[in-house]
C-alpha cells in the first residue's frame, strides 16, 4: 500500500510496520525539529477529536505524508497521558468516524483487504458484500438502529449480505474497537509524560468543560425530589438493584443528562444493577450524551405511555406532555415559593425594624418627661 494510503489509515498493521521500518526513535519524534510538524498535527488531531471530527485533508508531497503518518503515534501518546477512559473512547470514535469518511469511497477490493487486517473474511459479488454472521454480530452489536439486528437480515450458509456502505460502517466499528483496546499504553516513560504535560493539561481542561455540557439544559442545581413520578420510580428501581427495561433505561439516562447530571454521576447510579457492565454502560451513556455528535433527548409522555413507562401519574402530569416539562414546572413552582418566603421574611424584618424604631422613640419620650 502506498505511504499516502497508510497515512490515512495509520492504525492498520501495514502502517505500523512501515513506521517501524523508518527507524525513527521516540526521542527523535519528541524532540527533533524535523518532526515538529508531526507533533503539531498530533496535537491538532487530539483537539479535533474533542470536537468529534478529525479532519483529513489531501496530502501534498512526502513531507506532509510523513507528518500525517507520524502524528498518529504522537496523538496516541497524548491520549495515553490524558488517562481518561471517557476521553479515550471519544478519541477512538473520532478516528473511526474520520476513517469511515474515506472508506465509503474506496473500491470493494480495498475494503476486502482492509477487512482482512481486522480478521474479517468477506466476499463481494453483484454489488453486495457477504460476511460471516459472527463477524457481523461482533461489529454491529453496538449499533442501535433496528435495521442492524440479526433478525432483520437474511442469513444464508452462515453469511450476511450487506451493501458497500454498510460494510464500510462495520469497518468503522472495527477501527474504533482496535483503537480503544490499544489503551492504556503500559509504562509510559517519565520523559514522555513530562514532554506531553503542557498539552495534556490543556486537553484535560477543555474536556472537563465539555463533559459538564454534554446534553445539559440549564435547570440549575439538580433536584431529584422534583423529578416526575416515572423517573423517580426508575431511579428507585435502579438503586434497589432492579434491572430496567431498555426503553426505561434510555428515558431515565437521557432525562438525567438533560437536567445536568454528568456521565460519571449516572454511571455510578447504575453500578448496583445485577447485570452492571461498566464498559458497556459507559458507552451507552456517552452515546446518549452526544459522543457521536447526536444528543438524545428523553421521550415525550405519549411515548412513555406506549412503552408502559408512565408510572405514578399525578395531577401535574395531566397538564404537561413531556418529563422535562414536568421538572421545569416543579422547579418554577419551587423557585416562586422560595421567592415568596424570602419576601415574607424581608417584610417581617422590616416590621421588626419599624417596631424597634418606634420603641426607641417612646423610650426617648419617657426620658424627656422625667
TrEMBL record:
It comes from the Archaea. Residues 337-370 are annotated as: Disordered. Keywords: 4Fe-4S, DNA replication, Iron, Iron-sulfur, Metal-binding, Nucleotidyltransferase, Primosome, Transferase. Its cofactor is [4Fe-4S] cluster. [4Fe-4S] cluster binds at residues 230, 301, 310, 317. Binds 1 [4Fe-4S] cluster. GO terms for cellular component: primosome complex. Residues 337-353, 360-370 have a biased composition (Basic and acidic residues). Residues 222-310 form the DNA primase large subunit C-terminal domain. GO terms for biological process: DNA replication initiation; DNA replication, synthesis of primer. One of its GO terms (molecular function) is 4 iron, 4 sulfur cluster binding. SUPFAM superfamilies: PriB N-terminal domain-like (SSF140914). InterPro entries: DNA_primase_C, DNA_primase_lsu_euk/arc, DNA_primase_lsu_PriL. Heterodimer of a small subunit (PriS) and a large subunit (PriL). Regulatory subunit of DNA primase, an RNA polymerase that catalyzes the synthesis of short RNA molecules used as primers for DNA polymerase during DNA replication. Stabilizes and modulates the activity of the small subunit, increasing the rate of DNA synthesis, and conferring RNA synthesis capability. The DNA polymerase activity may enable DNA primase to also catalyze primer extension after primer synthesis. May also play a role in DNA repair. Belongs to the eukaryotic-type primase large subunit family. This is DNA primase large subunit PriL.
